[in-house]
């Protein structure tokens, strides 16, 4: 494949991440995983497991599933984020106060980020690029405008 520039893994991942609500889906999945892990702590630490433990495992699993589906199917992000918020709030009652608040907060923040993500948004420019563009604009304006004539 001569003549075709090889795209690095990092830049390919950056492009993949740019077209989906990456951080929202990741935080939602991590929140669910954290709650699932707190279900396995010793009985001395456990505060509350409701409904014979079934919902304590079901709701965090739904959170993980919604997070992964948000990452790999961003077209349905609104549905997954609403379902993720409801599952996150449900873990308050069913699993150790939402994984000792950590998983609950991760799930809520991730769902909100996924819900608010806009797919048609312009990519953000870095501070250096904005400065360089401003500098070019000033140079262009200075070159286009003749120097004002000195008044007598």
Summarize the structure.
With 152 residues, the chain is mainly α. It has seven helices and no strands. The longest helix is centred in the middle third of the chain and has 19 residues, at 54-72.
SSE pattern, N- to C-terminal: HHHHHHH
Compute the gyration radius: what is it?
A: 24 Å
Structural class: mainly alpha
Helix content: 55-70%
Q: Count the strands?
A: 0
Largest sheet: none
Low-confidence stretches: none
Q: What is the terminal separation in angstroms?
A: 68 Å
Indicate the mean pLDDT: 83
What does the overall shape look like? elongated
What percentage of amino acids are in beta strands? Answer: under 5%
Query: Helical segment tally?
Result: 7
Describe this structure in words.
The chain is mainly α. It has helices spanning 9-18, 22-38, 54-72, 77-94, 96-100, 102-116, 127-144. The model has no long low-confidence stretch (mean pLDDT 83).
Outline the fold blueprint.
Blueprint: H1 9-18, H2 22-38, H3 54-72, H4 77-94, H5 96-100, H6 102-116, H7 127-144
Helix pairs in contact: 2-3, 2-4, 2-6, 3-4, 4-6
Which structural traits does this protein have?
152 residues; mainly alpha; 67% helix; elongated
